[in-house]
Specification:
Length: 281
């Protein structure tokens, strides 16, 4: 990867961890994800008139990705409701890079070289360590772990689908705008049906922070989509997951969740893995 692509993916990692922390901080998860998803819808609708329409070949990918994203949001809401942020977030993110590597080899014909493969493996080991250290000394919450792991599989799915779609689109920004609009309808519609006439009253107390989360979410994924047009999918996916370092730090500082020396060592493995990815790229 070039330095510009690397910088874009690292910025995406920071903004991604930040919007996830905002979603976790809002007590009512449906409120948080309605604002973030609905805010993404509004941003997408504002961008559509200013961007090129994706080429016809990109639309099957875009619509399939929108469906996967809706499933992702539902699973992420569940994992945040059941587990600690500092644990749920790394598990959700950590299961994705290895799966992306396999799917990219199958569907995009991108087989990583030795350095990149070693980097993905070490990154996954570090991500797993960051997540699982939190289990020490207590019984695992299998429902939370299952939700977070399933979230990771949806991340891998939409990462590969969008990687192929954005390359076929001819316009990363146009693809981003239409994807945000397509995926942003479902959760607000479900919430409005559940709350009926109370929707604005329910959303108002958290509106400002939720819409900030939406802006960060669109920025994070727009940067990743652009990067996927400039580099292979697996290294981008693994580098993006450096967001777990930011997430773990946020969990420790903001949510007062323990970090600890073992988790620092696991984070070190992640950093070494990212270094190998950059060497191989």
């Amino acid at each position: 990867m070039t330095p510009v692509v690397t910088a874009a993916v690292l910025l995406a990692a920071v903004t991604h961890a930040s919007w996830n922390a905002i979603a976790h901080r809002i007590t009512d998860k449906l409120v948080g994800f309605t604002l973030i998803s609905g805010g993404g819808l509004l941003i997408g609708l504002l961008l559509i008139p200013c961007t090129a329409v994706p080429r016809a070949a990109a639309w099957p990918y875009l619509l399939f990705s929108a469906a996967i994203h809706v499933t992702y949001y539902a699973l992420l809401m569940t994992s945040f409701r059941l587990g600690d942020f500092g644990q749920a977030y790394p598990i959700a993110r950590g299961t994705a890079p290895l799966v992306v590597t396999v799917l990219a080899a199958l569907f995009a014909h991108e087989v990583p070289d030795g350095w990149a493969a070693a980097g993905v493996a070490l990154s996954c080991a570090g991500l797993t360590g960051v997540a699982l250290w939190g289990l020490r000394g207590r019984r695992p919450d299998w429902a939370a772990l299952a939700a977070a792991s399933a979230t990771g599989l949806t991340i891998a799915g939409y990462t590969v689908v969008d990687g192929l779609g954005v390359r076929a689109s001819g316009s990363p920004l146009g693809y981003t705008a239409w994807l945000m609009a397509a995926e942003g309808i479902a959760i607000p519609a479900w919430a409005a049906a559940r709350w009926r006439g109370r929707t604005l009253a329910v959303l108002r107390p958290s509106a400002a922070v939720g819409l900030l989360g939406a802006a960060l979410s669109v920025t994070a994924y727009g940067l990743v989509l652009w990067a996927q047009t400039r580099a292979d999918l697996a290294p981008v996916a693994a580098l993006r997951e450096s967001s777990v370092l930011v997430g773990a730090a946020i969990g420790a500082v903001v949510f007062k969740e323990r970090f600890g020396v073992p988790r620092i060592a696991a984070a070190g493995l992640l950093v070494v893995g990212i270094g190998l990815l950059l060497h191989g790229g």
